[in-house]
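[job 0412] stage=complex_fold ligand=adenosine monophosphate status=START
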Amino acid sequence: MAKKSIDDITVRGKRVLVRLDLNVPLNDRGRITDDRRIREALPTVRRLLKDGGRLILISHLGRPTGNAAEDAEFTLRPVALRLTESLNRDVVFVDATVGDEVRRAVDGLTDGSCCLLENLRFHPAETIADKKAAKDGALRKEKDAFAAGLADLADAYVNDAFGTCHRDNASMLTVPQRMAGRPRVVGYLVQKELRFLGDALRTPKRPFVAILGGAKVSDKVGAIEALLGKCDTILIGGAMAYTFAAATGHGVGDSLVEPDRYELARSLLERAGGKLRLPTDSVVAKEIVRGAATQVCTGDIPSGMKGLDIGPATIKDYAAVLHDAGTIVWNGPMGVFETPPFEVGTMAMARAVADATDRGAVSIVGGGDSASAVEVAGVAERVTHVSTGGGASLEFLEGKPFAAIDVLDDA
Ligand code: AMP
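[job 0412] stage=complex_fold status=DONE, emitting structure tokens
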């Protein structure tokens, strides 16, 4: 079901609670090393400011431990400064998430102004899982009280934090649940993610090809199972491929495998009926070290060697499949792409996806490693959509419902 967006509500003079994903990497001096997430949040914030909203911006940053001294590095203060520069207007930083200080700051907002509250995860209630809260009344109370503190601040709620949409954090789910009756809508980023990912899965242009890589079959099994019913071909890469190879009796040397998933791997191959394509050759080495001596191995990998990237024949074979694709979704690298020379297969896939997009395919690259691969390959601008959420986009591909989205107003 499509959701209402910020284009469907009037915000002039209204206090709007805007959940963003401002989880940017910081160096040890508290400097932002990559401001992509801040830049991506700007269209929604600018639009709401222009329309005269009084914005209360909220986000998490990193994984604070609950130890105040250690957690100081996770403050959102530098983000408020960067927002101030980018928006060319004062973004008041509030050194708290709930309470009197927050209330005073919100009362001080005028039309078309905004404040940023401190890291939501500084409050332990933000990340209490609903499953845990269901078994422990005190936790439920704590989570509800925190959510009420946020919900009571505002007349409307905007979710523009796709990267956390698969979570039941207080600010993502409990807050909009408590705000029933007030407008609860998506921002431009979430709207775009839902449109691209949703359309690809619902009405893909065919052939529909998925590229799945990364370390573990166990992390991707949900996506493989869901995509088997939707895709025409699934190209497998990364260490995952060796679990499939070992499960079907091939020698994989010292490659990373999950022996407890062999049974599952065999069952997936059987159910796939040829849709699942495995590498026919690998780049192997003794160790994962920069500049390691490598060999290309077709067939069984000898003991003492690890498979660390897809080989040249596989690259050619996979690129040919992508050449004719109508829709492509990609999640997970083809090898240990962080350590050259094992980045070759992943970079080749990035270029092949971009080439296919130039020829008219719709391509969606899902978060994390694959997103950074298309950036490094210099083709990020040539793919249709680079998802801002790694875990969220994978769960979306798995077909899991997102309660944080479901709770928002239907269009
Ligand atoms: P994931 O988080 O499951 O998408 O896995 C990403 C990680 O898988 C990256 O850090 C890669 O270095 C790693 N990876 C990919 N291929 C291999 C491989 N053949 N052997 C070991 N690790 C791999």
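The mean pLDDT is 96.
[job 0412] exit 0
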